[in-house]
Each structure stands twice: as structure tokens, then as C-alpha cells.
Amino acid sequence: MERVIDPLLADLHTEYEEANRRGYVWKRRWTLLTGHLIFLKTVALSEVEGAMTLLSDYSADDITGLKRTRTVSIVAIALTTVVLEMPPLLNFPFAISNPNTILYLLPQALVLAVPMGFTVGVFYGLRGRIVSLRSRVAVLAGATILSFVSLAMLAWIVPSANQQFRQVVFGHVSGNDGAIVMKGVNELTLSELSERIGAYQRGGVVHRNGQVLDSDPRELSYSYHQRWALSCATVILAMFALAMTQRLVAGWVVGLGTLSTFVIYYVLLWSGRAGVLQHSLPAFVGAWMPNALFALVCIAVMAAPSRRIPPPGVSRPTPGVQ
User: Fold this and answer.
1) Distance between CA 177 and CA 78 in Å, rounded?
2) Quick one: which of 56, 294, 241, 242 has its CA closest to 131?
3) For the segment 247-260, what is each residue's pLDDT rounded down to a tens digit?
4) Cα 211 to the chain's mean position, in Å?
């Protein structure tokens, strides 16, 4: 605070007051804008410096692997987000020229792109390495933070953004921008889903403003549990990727393993949903089935001894030696 934050705020205050005293309106606004950006950049750099201090005890091999994991994850998340945003934009060509619609589609793309991109980062960043306990803790800590972010987005941000996108599309198609579109299942927050599920359990029919809200209770229950399960996907898939890193070395093998992971998870995800809607699976089981199966495979892989020879320059730890 004394060395960085206080002097920075003092400079911002002085420059702003000087521009205000001289009547420079645009300079005052520019000073306010750039001052806040510099403040945020300084805080971010200070946090990075603190994080690097924590990593000072890590080995050079650990730091290299974690940095590569971070870089690949960021690139993979960005590319996956763009790919996931393209289908709805292509279905509504007018939305491409509207920056708001692209922004509204961003949250629902991110909640899928984050677990996928972070898993790619772990697969490629740590492939072929003897991953230390510290690196595992760092990766799982990052995955946990991303899972909490995903939960917040699935609980509140995604439903609101989806509803705004539906409003824009309906207003463009119907020509009535003032009409209010009724929320669907994907546009309900977690609390609204819980409230509507409870109302169905108590009375069988949900009323709001004199209207009957017709929704499938099983779909509501699945959506509720699926948001919790999907928010945990980053941690589960990261654990699975960590378990597989020592067994996958060649780039094409890693790519095939990563693609297979996503395909299998996607098939399990939609199989669970189909089972719930066809009344063959409980909502909780259908939603959590992909995470549960990947967690079981992860435990089995970690329990099995790895006979792979370490790559050149990486020595296998001697048992009993820290």
C-alpha cells in the first residue's frame, strides 16, 4: 500500500484535479480512464509478482511445465470459445453485426470452453513429465478456481445472457423490441430452478402472474443438477489429464487422447440427459454420470503402476526420497 498503491492514487488525484481546475474536460476524462487502467495493471502485476514469489521454490522443470500449461490453456480456451460461438451466429446472420449478441453468447460458450481448454493445457503442458506433487497442487488449485468461476456463470450470468439474446432475436424476427419473452429452462437462475422444482413437487403446476408455466419437471431437475456437475468438470477433467500425462508422450497420441476425452464426455453428457428425459435415469444420476465415470477412470489409472521410461533429462524419483 505505501510503496505502490498510495503513490499511484495520489498521482491520479493530482492529475485529475489539475485538469479539472483548468477546465480541460476531455483531458480530465482521459486522465480518469487511463488512471484506472494503470491502477488495474499495477495491481495485476503485483499479484503476478506475488505468485512468482510462491513459485520460487519450484524446480525449473516444474515452472516450465506450469507456464506451458497456462499458455496452452489460454489459447485453447480462446479458440474453443470462438468455435462454440459460431453456430448460433451463423443461424442468425443479423447477430454477427450486433456486438451485443456476440457478448450475450460469450458466457454460455465459456462455461464449456474453460474445462475443455484447461484440459488441453494440462495434456500438452505436462505431457511426458514426471509431475511433482507441487505441480499437481498448482494445477488442481487453478482448476478449482475456474470451477468456482464456472459455477457463478452457470448460476446467474449465463441465464441472464441467454435471456437477453432471446430478446434480441425475438425483437428482430417479430419487429417488436418491447415484447418480453418468457424465460425457458436455460434462462432460469439456480434459485429460480430450485423454486420452480419445489413448486412442482408441492402442487404439480406452477403459476406466475396468473399464467401456468408449463415445464417438464424432469428437465428442470436435470438442468439444476447439470449446472452443478458442469461447474465441477474442470477439476474432474484436470485430474484425469494429470493421471494420463505420464502415459502420453507423442504429440499425436496426446491429441488423440484429448479428442477422445471430449467426445466421450460429450456422449456421456447427452446420454445422461436423454436417459433423464426418457424416465430411465434419475436427474441426479444423469447429470453427474460423466463426472463420476471419469473420476473412477482417473482413480484406476492412478492406481495402476506406470512402466513408461521417463523422457531424456527427466529422472524418475527414487522411492522414499523427497
Assistant:
1) 32
2) 242
3) 777 777 888 889 99
4) 36
